[in-house]
Amino acid sequence: MTSAAAIELASVSKRFGEHLAVDRLSMSVAEGEIVCLLGPSGCGKTTTLNIVAGFLDPDSGTVKLHGKPMNGVPPHRRNSGMVFQSYALFPHLSVLENVAFGLRARGVGGAEAQSRARETLALVRLDGLEARMPHQLSGGQQQRVSLARALVYRPEVLLLDEPFSNLDAKLRLSMREEVREIQRKVRVSALFVTHDQEEALHIADRIVVMNHGRIEQLGTPESVYFRPETRFVADFLGAANFAPVAVAGDALLEGPGGERWRATLNARQGAAAPARGTLMVRPERVRLLAEGDAPDNANTVPGRVLRTSFLGAHRITEVAVGDLLWRVREADTRQAARTAGEAVRLAWAAEDTVFLHD
Question: How far apart (Å, rounded) are the C-alpha atoms in residues 44 and 86?
């Protein structure tokens, strides 16, 4: 981390009574970057966001915004914009008045405040709705007003606390696109809290996966999804296939039935034979083959089809592999579905095999 980071946390901890909500957390958000704090309820992500915003003081550690120490600095002096889950609009004020309110409270003159509010409403595609009251808006429009109110200050950092959780699925998707587009246009650095894995993968430049107040893994969406470092991350980021294994060599894992599977192991893992752990491979990386097929240069295991589910854009086939249940996600649904009870062979590449230490 460097002083040039838009947001920088160093060994930040926060306790509520006996509960340690954030435990020595260190991370940064680069200029113009969106970083998502992702994790289950109670993992410390919203507490972390509130510490950055200044609504909570850390018990220890330091918070910096663009290199400036923020410990003890109140929220209104941090030049950050906050978007809440609940919209938090003033019901008795018009759309324009809601957006201009904070500027007026900070001493910006009426004409300039209204001019900046109109510009920001145009940015979030709400021009023409300035005179409407909040109750006359859809949920998506209300959330755009909330976003405009956060952006009208021209903040250096944007903080978003589960902003789409009250919207329906289709509207959530369109709002993700809009927020990403606006963030890129204004080049504001953003810290985004969510418990929705798909949302984090869609919107983030980097993802911080949190568990019990600590960072389990920090990386790009691709790295945390396809190369998880812990069983928790592998489970939380989506469906995955698992099998107990032991390291049998520099690039070799041994399965529960004596199967030998190739894997890309780092130097520490390869030297750890006969260490035990878990093999993980994502369902979309597994191919379904006929029982007798054995492709070159691929890991394989026999199984028997339990059931298939057609889900529009893809098909999920569940396969019994010994005592284990594996899933295969096929994007090409034009092929005939496998039948229950059919003997098949599952195949996947060595580079898609992840070894997780116990």
Answer: 19
